[in-house]
């Protein structure tokens, strides 16, 4: 099968830095044990499992905030993930006497500082994001002036008396979301100030998807919990390219592949490259007439995170 690999794809700088830091922690006996990671270090189940095997325990419960999860740690070290945490989480960890390692991505910090600054200047801030995402959790903690929105209905439901309103976003949303919701919000609030905080990694991967050559289908390799991976699928579909999310080669359907001639492959910012390479190799070898090329079994067991 003909396969176009889109570029850039895969790990972003923020994920590389967070994963490197985690590898350093795993090897450094001077860091107080136990080590707990508050939330998923990156939104990829396979990476999380690899770190669990190295003794770094992940605390993740979708019904609990990071502040609540901290109650489960009594000593040792806490690692804050690339998605950042609220100031209250930082303060509570300090009060508990925990050693703190903060791997918050610089782009996330920049976006969160923009929210803080605008609140201080008297704005209400509309934050385009997933309500249950850690980035939204952090900005909501800044006060009632932050309104997390993800749909037109959310904009219609807003009741804000303030004449100063700014709109910004979670770093991994799609360019379409920001444009579309920004326009809707501006129709309601004509003086709206829009601050685009989509990070460069997210933007460049979405642009590569949007501007790709004509293909029958675009495969995005990524975890189902990874917002930036899901947004790559949405971006392709908005550009009228059929697309789907696959976590590994095991999610490919042979019957579906038989209908395709030319496909493209990209991957989310937290996807180990071995998984993407395996998907690419499989698709390149795929021959409708040769059942020997139809075995969708992943041989990736351990994720050598930088290979
Ligand atoms: S996707 Fe963007 S904001 Fe998120 S970790 Fe990567 S570079 Fe940072």
Polypeptide structure, described:
By secondary structure, the protein is of the alpha/beta class. It folds into three domains: 2-11 and 201-293, Cobalt-precorrin-4 Transmethylase, domain 1, CATH 3.40.1010; 13-105, Rossmann fold, CATH 3.40.50; 107-198, Cobalt-precorrin-4 Transmethylase, domain 1, CATH 3.40.1010.20. Helices cover 38% and strands 17% of the residues. The chain is built from twelve helices and twelve strands. It has helices spanning 13-27, 45-53, 66-69, 87-95, 106-120, 134-140, 152-156, 175-188, 200-210, 227-238, 254-257, 273-285, and strands at residues 2-5, 35-38, 56-59, 77-80, 99-102, 124-128, 146-149, 165-169, 193-194, 217-221, 243-246, 262-267. The strands form three sheets. The chain has a four-stranded parallel beta sheet, sandwiched between helices. A four-stranded parallel beta sheet has the order 3-2-4-5. Strands 7-6-8-9 form a four-stranded parallel beta sheet, with helices on both faces. Helix 10 links the parallel strand 10 (217-221) and strand 11 (243-246). Helix 9 (200-210) packs parallel to helix 10. It starts with a strand and ends in a 22-residue tail after the last helix. The mean pLDDT is 95. The chain binds iron/sulfur cluster (SF4). Iron/sulfur cluster is lined by residues 12-15, 82, 105, 107-108, 171-172, 199, 201-202, 228, 269.
């Amino acid at each position: 099968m003909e396969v176009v690999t889109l570029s850039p794809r895969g790990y972003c700088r923020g994920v590389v830095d967070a994963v490197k830091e985690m590898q350093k922690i795993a090897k450094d006996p001077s860091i107080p044990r136990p080590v707990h990671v508050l939330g998923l270090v990156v939104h990829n189940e396979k990476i999380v499992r690899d770190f669990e095997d190295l003794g770094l325990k992940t605390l993740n419960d979708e019904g609990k905030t990071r502040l609540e999860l901290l109650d489960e740690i009594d000593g040792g070290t806490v690692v804050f993930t690339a998605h950042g945490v609220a100031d209250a989480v930082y303060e509570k960890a300090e009060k508990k006497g925990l050693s703190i390692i903060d791997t918050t991505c610089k782009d996330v910090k920049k976006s969160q500082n923009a929210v803080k600054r605008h609140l201080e200047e008297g704005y209400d801030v509309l934050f385009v994001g997933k309500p249950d995402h850690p980035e939204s959790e952090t900005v909501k903690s800044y006060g009632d002036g932050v309104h997390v929105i993800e749909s037109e209905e959310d904009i219609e439901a807003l009741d804000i008396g303030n004449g100063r309103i700014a709109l910004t976003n979670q770093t991994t949303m799609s360019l379409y979301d920001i444009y579309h919701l920004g326009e809707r919000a501006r129709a309601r609030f004509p003086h709206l100030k829009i601050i685009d905080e989509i990070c460069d990694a997210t933007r460049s991967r979405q642009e590569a998807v949007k501007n790709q050559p004509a293909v029958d289908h675009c495969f995005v390799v990524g975890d189902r919990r990874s917002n930036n991976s899901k947004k790559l699928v949405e971006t392709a579909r908005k550009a009228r390219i059929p697309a789907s999310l696959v976590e590994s080669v095991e999610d490919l359907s042979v019957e579906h592949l038989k209908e395709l001639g030319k496909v493209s492959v990209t991957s989310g910012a937290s996807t180990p490259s071995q998984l993407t390479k395996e998907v690419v190799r499989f698709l390149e070898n795929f021959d409708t007439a040769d059942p020997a090329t139809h075995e969708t079994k992943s041989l990736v067991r351990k994720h050598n995170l930088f290979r």
